[in-house]
Specification:
The protein is α+β, with helices and mostly antiparallel strands. The chain has three domains: 89 residues, Rossmann fold, CATH 3.40.50; 61 residues, ATP-grasp fold, A domain (Dna Ligase, domain 1), CATH 3.30.1490.20; 113 residues, 2-Layer Sandwich (D-amino Acid Aminotransferase, Chain A, domain 1). Helices cover 35% and strands 25% of the residues. It has ten helices and 14 strands. The strands form three sheets. Strands 9, 10, 11, 12, 13 and 14 form a six-stranded antiparallel beta sheet that branches. Helix 1 links the parallel strand 1 and strand 2. The longest helix has 18 residues. It is globular, with a radius of gyration of 19 Å. The structure holds adenosine-5'-triphosphate (ATP) and magnesium ion. Magnesium ion binds next to strand 14.
C-alpha cells in the first residue's frame, strides 16, 4: 500500500478521449482508497523515446503502473515493452497478449485454430492482392484490424459497396478485416484474471453499438446479469474463457460477443477495457460484488504482485 502507483493514461489513438476518462476515474478512486498515486499523460509517440517520460516515473518513485490507455500504445504491447525494459511492474496483460488481442486478424486466426467460435472473415492489407474479391457473405462488416470503440466499423450489403468501403478504409488503415455480420443479441463478458464476471446484455436504443451509443448517456440499455438460460450462460462464459486463455490476457479484460440462436460468436478480446464508472467491465464487476473502488484496489494489488520485469514474451 505504501508504494506509488503511476496511472498512465491518454495515449494517441482515436480512443484518447475515452482513455483520459478511464485514467482519471481509476486515479480518483485510488486516491479515495488512500493509495499514493500519480497521473501521467502519455500524449505523443515520441514520449516513450524521450528521457523525460521515464524521468517522470523515476522522480515520482513509481513502483507499479496501471495502464489506462485504450488503443495504442497501451493496449497493443508498446507501453508494456517500455515498462519491461524499464523494470517497472504494470497491470494486466503482457506485451505479447496485448499485441495479439489488439490485432483482430491475428486473434481470429487463433480463435479459428482453437475451435473458438468467431464470425468468418478475411484480412485485407494495403498493397496486397485482396481476398475481398472472393467474399460472398452479405451483409458483411468491414473494420480496421487494430482499432477500438467501434471506430471505422462499417456494414455493407453487396459487393459493390464492399469494394468501395474496402478502398476507402485502406486509405486510412494498413490492415482491415471483412467479417460475416452476425444478426443476434450483443453481450459481453468481463474477466478478473481467469474469473468470468456476470454477462451483460447490451441493447442500443437505435442502430448498432457504435461510438455514439457507447458513450452517450442513456443511448443504450445494459442488462446485467443478461437474461439467459443457465446452460446458455455457462456456455457463453466457457467460450469467453477459452478466448481469454487463447490470447493469454490477464488482469481485467473483456470479451465482446454476438449471440445468435444461443450460439456465441466471439468478436474480440479487449485487454484494456473501459474503466469509467459507467463502462461495461465495472458494471459487471459491480454485479459480482466489486464496486468501482474495490475493483480499482483489486487492479492495484494485482499489478503490485507482478514481477519487476520478465524480459521475455513467451
Ligand atoms: N461480425 C459482426 N456482426 C454483427 N455486429 C458486429 C460485428 N462486428 C462488429 N459488430 C458491431 O460493431 C461493434 C464494434 O465491433 P468490435 O467489438 O469488433 O470493434 P471495436 O471497435 O474493437 O470495439 P471496442 O469498443 O469493444 O474496442 C460491436 O460491438 C457490434 O455492435
Ligand atoms: Mg468491441
Amino acid at each position: 500500500m505504501s508504494e506509488i502507483i503511476g496511472v498512465i493514461y491518454g495515449g494517441y489513438s482515436n480512443e484518447r478521449e475515452v482513455s483520459l476518462k478511464s485514467g482519471e476515474a481509476i486515479f480518483n478512486s485510488l486516491i479515495k482508497s488512500g493509495y499514493k498515486a500519480v497521473l501521467i499523460d502519455l500524449k505523443r509517440p515520441d514520449d516513450l523515446g524521450d528521457w523525460s517520460f521515464l524521468k517522470q516515473l523515476i522522480d515520482n518513485r513509481v513502483g507499479s503502473v496501471i495502464i489506462a490507455i485504450h488503443g495504442t500504445p497501451g493496449e497493443d504491447g508498446i507501453l508494456q515493452g517500455f515498462l519491461e525494459l524499464s523494470g517497472i511492474r504494470y497491470s494486466g496483460s503482457s506485451l505479447i497478449a496485448a499485441a495479439l488481442s489488439m490485432d483482430k486478424s491475428l486473434a481470429k486466426l487463433i480463435f479459428q485454430k482453437r475451435g473458438i467460435p468467431t464470425p468468418e472473415f478475411v484480412t485485407v492489407e494495403r498493397g496486397y492482392v485482396s481476398d475481398s474479391f472472393y467474399w460472398k457473405r452479405y451483409p458483411a462488416v468491414i473494420k480496421p484490424a487494430c482499432e477500438g470503440s467501434s471506430v471505422g466499423v462499417i456494414f455493407v450489403d453487396d459487393s459493390k459497396k464492399l469494394e468501395q468501403a474496402v478502398d476507402e478504409m485502406l486509405l486510412i488503415y494498413d490492415k482491415i478485416i471483412i467479417e460475416e455480420m452476425i444478426a443476434g443479441d450483443e453481450i459481453t463478458v468481463g474477466f478478473m484474471n481467469d474469473r468470468p464476471l456476470p454477462i451483460i446484455k447490451i441493447v442500443p436504443k437505435s442502430g448498432f453499438y457504435d461510438y455514439k451509443n457507447k458513450y452517450t448517456k442513456d443511448a443504450t440499455e445494459y442488462i446485467v446479469p443478461a437474461p439467459l438460460e443457465k446452460s446458455v450462460a455457462e456456455n457463453v462464459s466457457k467460450e469467453a474463457a477459452r478466448a481469454v486463455k487463447a490470447m493469454g490476457v490477464s488482469g481485467i479484460s473483456r470479451v465482446d460477443i454476438i449471440l445468435r440462436h444461443n450460439k456465441p460468436y466471439i468478436l474480440e478480446v479487449n485487454s484494456i477495457p473501459g474503466m469509467t464508472e459507467t463502462s461495461l467491465l465495472p458494471k459487471a464487476a459491480d454485479s459480482a460484488g466489486y464496486d468501482f473502488d474495490s475493483l480499482c484496489r483489486w487492479i492495484a494489488e494485482d499489478a503490485s504482485k507482478k514481477p519487476n520485469s520478465t524480459h521475455k514474451t513467451c
